[in-house]
Amino acid sequence: MTSKPFYVTTAISYPNGAPHIGHAYEMIATDAIARWKRLEGREVYFLTGTDEHGIKMVQTAAREGVTPRELADRNAAEFKRLAGVLNVSNDDFIRTTEERHHKASQAIWQQMAANHNGDIFQSTYAGWYSVRDEAYFDEAELTEKDGKRFAPSGAEVEWVEEPTYFFRLSAYQQKLLDLYEANPDFIAPKERRNEIISFVKGGLQDLSVSRTTFDWGIPVPGAPGHVMYVWVDALTNYITGVGYPDTESELFKKFWPADLHVIGKDIIRFHTVYWPAFLMSAGIEVQHRVFAHGFLTVDGQKMSKSLGNVIDPFFLVDTFGPDALRYFLLREVSFGNDGDYSHEKLVNRANADLANNLGNLAQRSLSMINKNCEGRVPTPGPLTDADNAMLAEVDTALAAAQAAMDQQLVHDAAGALIAALSAANNYFAGQEPWALKKTDPDRMATVLYVTADTVRRLTIPMLAFVPASAARLLDQLAVPEAQRTLADAAKPNQLVAGTELPVPQGVFARLERPAEA
Ligand code: MSP
Predict the structure, then answer these.
(1) How many helices (H) does the chain have, and how many strands (E)?
(2) Burial of 480: CB neighbours in 10 Å, binned 0-12, 13-18, 19+
(3) Residues of the chain falling short of pLDDT 70
(4) Is the CB of 209 under 6 A from ligand 1?
(5) Is the CB–ligand 1 distance for residue 150 below 6 Å?
């Protein structure tokens, strides 16, 4: 390993129901980023998990006639299973009900309480709370309809009044503004950064950080009857995952501060205002960056249980396979913006880019090699201008993909690779190797070599997006496991002439819309 270790996380999901396609999306996008960093040769730690405390879990459990723990156990297992079927390469899966996390949350609390003789103090909270958002709101942020009040998310709020502990968030306004100023990449995309800066400039109020009306949470140290506000414990998962409070542990020293928290746009305030303030208060280094992705709708509509359009990601994996789903979400949705899911769009996108473009090029060139070159990597002759232009096209695409991934612009990275594959299909068609077979077999060998090596170079980065299919394709090119890095992709002509290749098999099936949809 030559370069810096990389620590990346998703948000941790509330396991108050089964995972939906929005959760799958976040796991897939974060996985693509983690896998890309590994392809760069970096040591990566990738954490995901479930956020199991809070009143929302209590209320859902009561409705379903189970305990919060039973509800959490049941659904956390589904989130874990989802990561598995999506081929997500997380190194750990954290559940906030775990002992290690209780320990970490109580430790950070004590640090915050100790700081400045008390960033944490007792008072009484009286105000609005949205259970669905697990968040407090000012009167001014709410809308009113039929005598009820609603948070910006559309969730109804309730009035709560209870003695609680507060975190002195107001003391962090300038420190946060300084942080954003000194670290222009702290919040992405850019528009989100501007929103947060103006929010913080507007003034920060102290934050109620404990609850006394229920007990499904992490006990506040030395304060019987108080459990931590769920977001205090939830955010802390990112340091629990690397061994906090043992700041001398190998994991913590290697991976903290986190390089990247990938989250949805609805929870950006928690990650870019509260979380760095908690960390500063506790004397812990602040994370490097937060990327807020957009929301997925389904057939143009917001997903909701009442509309009955909540998409089950397990069904999609069963129907299309994980790679088609992954590719569609990564390529179709511009990362950072909202996106829309439909079966039709998935099928069209996967067929166009995976089956017709990459799959077709691989299959055509490999079948010709199988039939005409004794199933071995052909020996290339001198390269022509057309060959060199093809090589240069791949160089450009790889550089563009890398530049895009440096900013988490996953859709642009995939787009650059696919554009080069289109160019390679044109190259192959233009060179007509099937005609050269009779007229100039040596030239045919060169064209087949250049094509196969181009497939190799563009498939290696696709390992981040469609890991299983890209690996199968590289197997067909007999690319050794150890030579599947971006540094190998950058080098042309790495296929070794004479290497025996397996009989080629199509990797990307053509998809059809499921009958019932
Ligand atoms: N538990 C909190 C996060 C705590 S992180 C310390 C939470 N959970 S959640 O289950 O509601 O959402 C988990 C993640 O999924 C969030 O990043 C959220 O933005 C994302 N999404 C939830 N619905 C989504 C879509 N419809 N589309 C895309 N992402 C969505 O928030």
Answers:
(1) 20, 16
(2) exposed
(3) 1-2, 116-117, 516-517
(4) no
(5) no
